[in-house]
């Protein structure tokens, strides 16, 4: 009788733990998706910034700024 109570208690604890994990998974998945979207956007913005900065290339040998439309 005593061991069946322990087993029942352990099963109840497992059910509580599983329920807690189920509750925390969707928000974590949403955060991961938002982080991925933000990193993708940031990567694209960095690429555009590099392209824009490239427009104002400094010719270090001559010491003059050159502008390119590439």
What would your notes on this structure say?
The chain has 70 residues and is mainly α. It has one domain. Helices cover 76% and strands 11% of the residues. The protein contains 1 helix and 2 strands. Strands 1-2 form a two-stranded antiparallel sheet. The chain is rod-shaped, with a radius of gyration of 29 Å. The model has no long low-confidence stretch (mean pLDDT 82).
Give a quick set of tags describing it:
single chain; 11% strand; 2 strands; two-stranded antiparallel ribbon; 70 residues
**Proportion of β residues?**
5-15%
Order of helices and strands: HEE
Largest sheet: 2 strands, antiparallel
Shape: rod-shaped
What topology, given as strand order, has the largest sheet? 1-2
- Through-space gap between termini: 82 Å
Helix percentage: over 70%
Radius of gyration equals 29 Å
Write down the overall mean pLDDT. Answer: 82
Whole-number count of domains: 1
Structural class call reads mainly alpha
Return residue spans where pLDDT drops below 50 for at least 5 consecutive residues. Answer: none
- In oligomeric terms, what are we looking at? single chain
Number of strands: 2
> Total number of helical segments?
1
In short:
The protein has 70 residues and is mostly helical. It has one helix and two strands. A hairpin with a 4-residue loop joins strand 1 and strand 2 (64-67).
Task: Summarize the helices and strands and which ones pair or pack.
Layout: H1 2-54, E1 56-59, E2 64-67
Antiparallel strand pairs: 1-2
